[in-house]
Amino acid sequence: MDEGKNSLEHIFPACIGGILVSDILCKKCNNSLGSSLISQILDDPTFHVAVENLKGEIPSIYEQFEKHKILIGEGDNSINVKIGTKGKSQGLIIPSKNDDGSINFDTKEAWKKIKQEMMENGWDESKIQKEKDAFLIMESGQVYRTPTNIYKRQMIKEVKREIPLSIIDDRLPALIAYEFLSLCVNEAIFHPALGPFREYLTGKECPEWLSIKKVGCGNEYNTYHYLWLKPTNPLQIHVRFFSWIGFVIEFWNINYGGSEYIIEMQVNKKTRLYRKDNGEFMHSEEF
Hints:
By secondary structure, the protein is an alpha+beta fold. Helices cover 26% and strands 29% of the residues.
């Protein structure tokens, strides 16, 4: 994060309709934080619920989240397996271990392992093909034995979509707060006093003077995200997703002394910046 700024990044992630960008991250950090932090949003059940409630208003974002839902296949004997939804694993059973130590494989993957074992034992192609034909027409519950393994065919009776259960890291709202702060203080964002905060964003321990709290806010979901910089002691930055999912980031080591700002961002649409002058918020910019 101290290598220089040379990469544009969305302050609110693009996957939830963010359009406002900043340029305080180097390309390496932007890519790293994107894969390690921002991608977590698509697996967080809190965001899935929000997007589900707004699917009629933000259909393209809803489609993204639907693709990240986990497919669960219910097999015989109440054995549940995960089914891939992306890339080469799409539509295939993801290998997993059962309580009894047995392993679930997709039929195609199981056959690859069987074939490899046959080839290592010197079987000719015609014999392998004959075994493959027999293996692929096995009925549920039938067992196929090799010299080293036992394979049992299980049929998938029903497939359901389930919401993932991974919660976003506190570093994500902290990163958003940092990028918002950069718009308010410009080059001062690179002050050495914020060095431990930048290190925290890249995986180091949270400094003692930094506090991140999840808070309840709002009474209904809507298609707006908000940022609010409050020049209090400690300095506070409020981050709110879909007007409901809220975080407060407190900086106990910063003597800010600047104006109070609010950013109101409508998903995939306009972003408005408000600055407080003489006790009132004034609309100062639109992006």
